[in-house]
Amino acid sequence: MAQPAAAGSSVNKDLGFKLDHKVSIPSILGNDTTEGTGAAVDLLGAEGAQVLFNIGVSGDTLSGSLYVTLSAQDSADGSTDWTALAASKYRIDEGVALVIDDPAEDPVLVAVTVLPGAGVRRYIRALVAFTGTHTSGMPIGATVVRGFLRKEPAYA
Predict the structure, then answer these.
(1) Residue 149 burial (CB count, 10 A)
(2) Are 53 and 138 in contact (CB under 8 A)?
(3) Residue 31 Rama label (left phi>0; alpha psi -120 to 50; beta)
(4) Exposure of 53 by Cβ count < 10 A (0-12 exposed, 13-18 middle, 19+ buried)?
(5) Which residues contact 103 (CB under 8 A, 6 or more apart)?
(6) Radius of gyration (C-alpha) of the chain in whole angstroms
(7) What integer pLDDT is reported at residue 3 of this predicted model?
(8) How do beta strands 46-55 and 108-114 pair?
(9) Which of the four, 55, 56, 90, 104, has the lowest number of CB atoms within 10 Å?
């Protein structure tokens, strides 16, 4: 049973002290991997991270030759040497797959959590890689949630 919303209950705690978020891919109608390449997010000061991919209904019929692949990438300097995280460095907490190749698989929210102690480099970004010619496009967006912040509150 849920706790009542009274003073001192867990529903009254301010997550703004523990979490912050940065947009990696703004909500857009994507057609190619250039549009699906997210901005770097600095993980300095955060002990944890999660990449949230928000994928809408594709305007094209998805198939084995027309699909998108979602990945989180890391970099030491935030501008070069971007590498997809190995499967041993993350888990999928929401959604079922990183490849969306069937109309039944969109729209979807996919949450990729970086595992503690995984050795992820300082910067992270989202990538939505498009395979095939996406004529009508697909609504995409991605946010990086940084957690277990060393400095609280996150908004200060």
Answers:
(1) 16
(2) no
(3) alpha
(4) buried
(5) 58, 61, 62
(6) 17
(7) 54
(8) antiparallel
(9) 104
**111 in helix, strand or coil?**
strand
- Write the single-letter amino acid at 112: V
Rounded distance between C-alpha atoms, residue 95 and residue 10, angstroms: 27
DSSP-derived letter for residue 37 is B
Instruction: Give CA–CA dist 67/136, Å, rounded.
Output: 13
Alpha-carbon distance of 115 to 112, in angstroms, equals 9
**pLDDT tens-place string over residues 44-86:** 989 899 999 999 999 999 999 999 999 999 999 999 999 999 9
The CB density around residue 70, as the number of other CB atoms within 10 Å, is: 23
Retrieve residue 56's tokens: 């809408």
Q: Using CA atoms, how far apart are residues 156 and 154, in angstroms rounded to an integer?
A: 6
